[in-house]
Design a protein that fits this description.
By secondary structure, the protein is an all-alpha fold. It is about 50% helix and about 0% strand. The protein binds heme C (HEC) (4 copies). One heme C binds next to helix 2, helix 7 and helix 8.
Length: about 160
């Protein structure tokens, strides 16, 4: 009898281990919540034109440098308040933590507008990334008090690529 339980327990453990090692990550891979930030460099190989234009012309591509030059006059906690808008995916999965730990997402990149890109990078499917954008996608950072009169058209296609 106890041997039976032993076998059952072993089988159960095996199942659990397999589930934890394989089943869990796979079953979560396709879900919305699992999309993580990967950094603009990852987009370059397939979207060379957008990448080059962005790097060359968008101020966002230097947004970390712009807060860094002001760091001296700020307390650490104050400096951290800048991360929400001047880095990519701050406090979100795969997003910015610190310049040292996550240098690939320290500036505002493609994903501040298009959303976390991990799933799209895997599948290359257009529906796995945010393609058509609205003013809402900019509001988070270009908040109403910053943009007194929000001019949707020119702004929506500005500062990108
Ligand atoms: C995560 C925050 C964030 C989001 C979301 C965001 N921006 Fe920005 N944007 C910034 C920051 C920060 C700057 C200033 C960068 C700097 O100069 O340091 C900026 C600068 C700009 C500029 C200035 C000109 C330039 O050459 O870069 C334009 C235009 C702009 N953004 C357009 C947009 C539009 C359009 C959207 C939405 C589709 C958008 N942004 C979404 C943070 C954001
Ligand atoms: C709520 C979002 C948000 C926060 C928080 C924020 N910024 Fe910005 N910042 C922007 C946006 C958007 C711009 C682009 C100009 C604009 O629309 O006001 C900008 C522009 C700038 C610029 C001008 C860069 C240039 O083009 O020369 C500097 C410098 C700057 N921010 C520094 C800071 C610092 C330092 C902090 C933290 C104390 C900070 N910002 C916090 C959104 C933000
Ligand atoms: C400031 C916001 C913003 C940023 C940052 C941004 N994009 Fe876009 N992207 C847009 C907008 C707006 C469109 C046009 C969507 C539409 O027409 O509805 C677009 C369209 C696209 C398209 C579709 C083809 C095209 O050009 O219309 C691709 C691919 C793309 N972006 C890739 C990128 C890549 C790669 C990066 C980073 C190097 C990036 N984007 C950064 C706003 C942004
Ligand atoms: C391995 C190649 C590959 C990588 C890496 C890649 N993409 Fe794409 N992307 C594609 C393909 C293929 C399409 C579909 C092109 C088409 O339909 O014309 C696409 C389409 C898009 C579109 C348009 C979506 C739409 O609704 O039309 C956007 C935006 C985009 N990618 C952004 C990104 C961003 C941001 C990254 C980096 C996080 C990225 N891509 C990385 C291959 C890639």
């Amino acid at each position: 009898m106890s041997k039976m339980i032993g076998i059952k327990t072993t089988a159960c453990m095996l199942f659990l281990t397999t589930f934890l090692l394989w089943g869990w990550p796979i079953s979560q891979a396709g879900s919305e919540t699992e999309k993580t930030y990967v950094g603009s460099q990852t987009c370059q190989e397939c979207h060379e034109t957008e990448y080059e234009n962005f790097k060359t012309y968008a101020k966002k591509a230097h947004s970390y440098e712009h807060i860094k030059v002001m760091r001296k006059g700020l307390a650490e906690a104050e400096f951290r308040t800048c991360f929400e808008c001047h880095t990519t995916g701050y406090k979100k999965p795969g997003g910015f933590r610190s310049e040292h730990e996550t240098p690939h997402v320290k500036d505002c990149g493609c994903e501040v507008c298009h959303g976390p890109g991990s799933l799209h990078v895997e599948t290359n499917e257009p529906e796995d990334i945010k393609g058509s954008l609205t003013a809402k996608d900019c509001d988070v950072c270009h908040s109403a008090d910053r943009v007194a009169a929000f001019d949707y058209k020119p702004l929506i296609h500005g500062g990108a690529h």
